Amino acid sequence: MSEKIISERRVGEHIVNESWMDQAQQWIPKLHEQTVYPERIVRSMSDSHAFQGWRMETIGPASVLPKQTLRKGDEITLDFGQHLVGYVTLSLLNVRSNADAPLRLKLTFGEMPCEVAEDFSTYEGWLSRSWLQDEVLNVDVLPGTVTLNRRYAFRYLKIEVLDTSIRYDIQIKDIYCRAVTSASMDAIPPLPENIDEELAQLDLVSIRTLRDCMQTVFEDGPKRDRRLWIGDLRLQALVNYETFGCNDLVKRCLYLFAGSRLEGGQVGACLYEKPEPYVDDIYLYDYALFFITTLWDYYEATKDRETLEVLWPVAREQIDIALKRLDARGVVQDDDTWYCFLDWHEQLNKQAGAQAILIYSMKRGQWIARELGLSAQEEQIQMQVQQAERATLHYLWDEEQGFFISGEGRQVSWASQVWMILAEVVDKDAAWALLQRLMNHKEAIPMNTPYMMHHYVESLLQCGKKEEALAQIRAYWGGMVKDGADTFWELYNPDDKTYSPYGSNLINSYCHAWSCTPSYFIRRIFASTAC
Fold it and tell me: Does Hydrolase appear among the keywords (predicted)?
């Protein structure tokens, strides 16, 4: 009996491989710490021309803060000059008299100006209000130094004095953030010399985004959801191989996903790390298949054959599970009993995109089987790929329109076309012609996230269009930088800059893992150019 079978057991509705979970815990990385002080005192200003209607105006340097006296009803906003993830410490002094009553402060943290400018009481999004970063701090003893227990992700900190007493006021004698990450900026290889200033800036913002999402797992966002999602992990890992090289962290995450699965053996979409790592009950068709591609990408980067051999049965299992979703035609069944992500868009039909991701992932599974010398499995997967491709071209290709269609409504979307190209259902010349037609199809369901935009850029590169890919990176991620991003955001629609699938842009994540991939593209493009 294999080690995998011996060590697996059911815990509630989950399958747990204790051996793999124990191994994953051995690869918990050490966190690097940096003490960062605020740079400026600022105030938020309403500005219809600024991103989401707010900009920050400088009042003065933060060095004058210790000399300022704050009374009940006063507030002050600090700009730390960069996005941080960490723990804040305040040293507080009472003035005029002794502190005969507790000091009560309200602290509001913001990754972007809107979060410290707008009143959280107006929040009506459907994600929990508790993700909005604020807290009331009571200090019983003054003078005193207080370190907040909760980790925050922020650039701006608004401090409001809710109460003192009639006898005393306060001064903030010192304030700093102990920023934490498992990534070391010293490990990053230098950029090739032929990269221009704009691309170098995009590379830096990408690196900062990934840095702040790298904790003891690859988090999707350090503000929200602070979880390990496999769709984000796949892209984070690609950037990590080109930059930080924290490959054991990728291995840790792969073992966590393999070691805690859903009841039917499915790799879950996300994992919680605390109090002990465990899989959430969300199953996403595409995300489970991405376990295969993430495993293959990891092997290509590290040549860690042991991990490939150990985790291949789980990857193979995801193919078997996904194939059960096909109908009699060999096409992914589209009804209300499943979910596939692809992109945030309410109207997006997922059938064609899911079919493409199935083919894309099975091809990588075929490569793994070949690498491991499993010829029978390789041949079987090859046959399954061919059957899926034939069904795709017969049922999902609309010759008259010249597009792949999805669902009963025969929907045309960017996601469907891009994923069919990435799955190599059509050859390179046909793929480029398809993208050119798509650019002129005004009714096609568009892309809403940097996650989907990554795959579009990847499809351009697959068509051999490096300059077009770089132009798209400059336009899209460069647009974020022009709008004030110092880390890249979860969502960015240039035509609707307050767009949120959650009902409020206040809850959006403004440092988000799936947005960090310009570094991956830039470094690979220019490395190949140099060769």
Answer: yes
